[in-house]
Design brief:
Elements: E1 2-5, H1 10-23, E2 28-31, H2 48-60, E3 67-78, E4 84-85, H3 99-109, E5 119-130, E6 135-146, E7 162-164, H4 176-182, H5 184-200
Parallel strand pairs: 1-2, 1-3
Antiparallel strand pairs: 3-4, 3-5, 5-6, 6-7
């Protein structure tokens, strides 16, 4: 089987590659470049699942017979902001915003929120679509709190302001291995891996 990752985000590719390699699955893992590049997809759905499926379906249209497309849609949700930015996490401060632009927009929006009310969570929805059109979705969430000032140099996106429940460090202060154990993407990917192992048996 050949697995194709429907993302051009190098951070997501790195995290997914590491988790899949650790599982020791007998599959080839490729980026969308192996199929000529990721088709342009407008992420206009109002749910993580909707956007993930839209991306996976677009890449699945290019798959070989033994191929499987895997797409991720993920983001951070602040409870005090009615779960925003949610699906708009990657473009919260505008279409061409940087990770830092988005992070500081979130901090600005939460500025008047008391520390005890700064609960939030990362959500990751992984959608797989095979060459026959069979679709499956795997969901992972990591709950915690959004702090007032960034800390840490690892990770990406909103990692520097997110402290998982039961921890004192942000996910940007953790190693990739530590983060993978508790992250939303790690949880969703392990569900996908368990499903894939059964499929390959």
């Amino acid at each position: 089987m050949r697995l194709y990752l429907a993302t051009s985000n190098p951070h997501k590719i790195q995290e997914l590659h590491a988790l899949l390699a650790e599982a020791g699955l007998d599959i080839e893992v490729h980026t969308a470049e192996a199929l000529g590049g990721m088709p342009e997809v407008v992420e206009d759905q109002d749910s993580f699942t909707g956007n993930a499926l839209k991306k996976a379906r677009a890449l699945a249209a290019l798959l070989p017979a033994d191929g499987l497309a895997l797409a991720d849609d993920s983001g951070i949700c602040a409870v005090a902001l009615d779960h925003a930015p949610g699906v708009y996490s990657a473009r919260y401060a505008g279409e061409n915003a940087s990770d830092l632009d988005n992070l500081y927009k979130l901090l600005d929006e939460l500025d008047s929120v008391q520390d005890l009310d700064r609960a939030g969570y990362f959500a990751c929805h992984l959608a797989s679509v095979d060459a026959s059109g069979e679709e499956t979705v795997f969901v992972g969430e990591c709950h915690g709190n959004i702090i007032r000032k960034p800390r840490g140099e690892n990770g990406f996106g909103y990692d520097p302001v997110f402290v998982p429940l039961g921890h004192e460090r942000t996910t940007a202060e953790m190693s990739q291995e530590e983060k993978a154990e508790l992250s939303h993407r790690g949880i969703a990917t392990r569900k996908f891996i368990a499903w894939l192992k059964e499929r390959l048996m």
